[in-house]
Amino acid sequence: MNSTTPDTPSPARGPAGHDVRDQIVAAATDYFSRYGYEKTTVSDLARAIGFSKAYIYKFFESKQAIGEHICASCLRQIETEVRNAVAAAGQPPEQLRRMFRTSVEASLRLFFQDRKLYDIAASAATGRWPAVQAYELAMGALLQDILRQGRKTGDFERKTPLDETASAIYLVMRPYVNPLLLQHSVDSSETAVLQLSSLVLRSLSP
C-alpha cells in the first residue's frame, strides 16, 4: 500500500487557481465557523460574500463541495502533524504510540477550538466524503509502514498477516480518530490513548 495520500477528486468547477475560489472558501470557512455547516445554505453564503448563488456554482457544484474542500484542508493538517510526530520518534513502538496520540490530540483540538468546523468533519464522516476516505487510507498506509518496520527490527511479531494486523489496530484506534465517534469519547480519550496503545503494543510482541 502506498504511504502517500491518494489524490482526492477535485469538487471544484472553473479555473482551479482562480482567486474567487479562495475567496469563497475563506468566506465559507468563516460562515460555517459562526453558524455551522448543516444550518448554512449556498444562498446564505452568496449573501454573505456578496455573490450570486449562480456565480458560486461556477466554482463549486454544491455546499458539500465547499465543505469537502475545507474538510480536506483540516485533514491534511492532521495528517502532517501525525507524520511529523512519527518521523521524530525513534523505534517503531514509539512511532505507533505517537501516531495514536497525535491523531487524537489534533482531532480534539479541532473539536474544542472550532466546534462549528468540527461539525463539517462529522458530516464528512457520516457521508463518507472522499476526503475522509483518503485520510483513512493514508493513516492505514502509515500504520502498515510502522508495522513493517517493526517486524524488520524484531519489535513486532511476524506471524499474523500484515493487513489483518493493521486493520485490527485501526479498529481499536477508530473511536478516537473518527469525528462521529470521538465526540462520545472525549472524557476518556487521554486515558484511552495510553491504555490502548500499551495493549496494542503488548499484542504485537514477538
What secondary-structure arrangement, pairings included, does this model have?
Elements: H1 19-35, H2 42-49, H3 53-56, H4 63-88, H5 92-113, H6 115-127, H7 130-153, H8 162-177, H9 179-182, H10 189-203
Please tell me about this protein's structure.
The protein has 10 helices and no strands. It has helices at residues 19-35, 42-49, 53-56, 63-88, 92-113, 115-127, 130-153, 162-177, 179-182, 189-203. It starts with 18 loop residues before the first helix and ends with a helix. It is elongated. With 206 residues, it is mostly helical.
Mean pLDDT: 83
| Structural classification | mainly alpha
Query: What pattern of helices and strands is seen along the backbone?
Result: HHHHHHHHHH
User: Biggest sheet, in brief?
Assistant: none
